[in-house]
């Protein structure tokens, strides 16, 4: 979702990213998620300038809330999704993703970027 929001200034992923940048909502993550963001943002196929990547990562470190979630036992198609599930369950915040089916049956609240924006506008989500 982060990369989608950066690649296009239109659409729901960009809308969620704007909410984060404007401090209307706060990212909740752990070090594994942060490391994944750093890895993905530096992939050659996206060609993001390193100084821009550094600025984004510093923003996340400064403004995000880092939590130490407990491991959970659930079966998901991609084990790389477990950190998102664990942080979601620990913090009682939704996972916002374009690939909701990877999280089915995890116990985490999962929504698309469009659903997140709709619920945010309806005032159903707490902002930090």
Please explain how this structure is put together.
α2 (12-21) crosses α6 and α3 packs antiparallel against α4. This protein has 6 helices and 4 strands; from the N terminus they run ααβααβαββα. The chain has 128 residues and is mainly α. It has a single domain (2-121), classed as Rossmann fold.
- The CATH architecture name reads 3-Layer(aba) Sandwich
**CATH topology-level name:** Rossmann fold
Counting DSSP H or I runs of 4 or more residues, the number of helices is 6
Our measurement of the CA-to-CA distance between the termini, rounded to an integer number of angstroms, reads 20 Å
Overall average pLDDT: 93
Q: How many β-strand runs?
A: 4
Short descriptors:
two-stranded parallel sheet, globular, mainly alpha, 6% strand, 128 residues, Rossmann fold, 6 helices
How would you summarize what this structure contains?
The protein has helices at 2-7, 12-21, 31-41, 50-63, 82-91, 113-121, and strands at 28-29, 65-66, 95-96, 110-111. By secondary structure, the protein is mainly alpha-helical. It has one domain: Rossmann fold (3-Layer(aba) Sandwich).
């Amino acid at each position: 979702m982060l990369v989608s929001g950066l690649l296009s200034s239109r659409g729901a992923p960009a809308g969620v990213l704007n909410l984060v940048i404007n401090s209307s909502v706060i990212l909740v993550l752990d070090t594994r998620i942060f490391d994944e963001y750093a890895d993905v943002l530096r992939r050659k196929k996206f060609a993001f300038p390193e100084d821009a990547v550094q600025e984004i990562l510093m923003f996340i470190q400064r403004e995000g809330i880092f939590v130490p979630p407990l491991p959970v036992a659930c079966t998901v198609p991609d084990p790389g999704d477990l950190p998102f599930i664990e942080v979601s369950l620990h913090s009682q915040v939704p996972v916002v993703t374009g690939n909701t089916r990877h999280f089915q049956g995890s116990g985490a609240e999962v929504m698309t970027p469009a659903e997140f924006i709709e619920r945010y506008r309806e005032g159903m989500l707490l902002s930090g």
